[in-house]
Structure to design on (127 residues):
């Protein structure tokens, strides 16, 4: 079962740290601050493999580069936002499947808030 940590950041935002226990992969979603993430990683003795961005706004991406520098995690986001996401390494698009360890994650484009907004759906877990 996927382990999910909901982390309050800034004044009114959240980031999510998720851990896939079979292949021991860990991802963070929309890191605006890095210290709370690093604290949980250290506490659980996890390494960070991926930084997933749902869209390009600063309050979801400000932690990308400092977190990548500290952990060597790959930054992944929408193909439509590739020129706006700091440090992006890999892009995903609608209906593609991202392999998160032993778990498939479906990418769903959800334009509206931004043109490149995406959701990461872990169907197996209904997350």
């Amino acid at each position: 079962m996927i382990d999910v940590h909901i982390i309050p950041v800034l004044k009114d935002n959240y980031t999510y740290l998720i851990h896939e226990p079979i292949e021991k992969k860990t991802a963070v979603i929309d890191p605006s601050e890095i210290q709370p993430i690093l604290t949980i990683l250290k506490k659980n003795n996890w390494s960070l493999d991926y930084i997933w961005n749902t869209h390009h706004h600063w309050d979801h991406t400000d932690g990308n580069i400092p977190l990548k520098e500290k952990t060597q995690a790959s930054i992944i986001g929408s193909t439509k936002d590739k020129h706006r996401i700091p440090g992006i390494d890999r892009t995903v698009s609608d209906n593609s499947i991202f392999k998160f360890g032993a778990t498939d994650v479906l990418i769903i484009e959800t334009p509206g808030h931004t043109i490149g907004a995406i959701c990461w759906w872990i169907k197996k877990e209904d997350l």
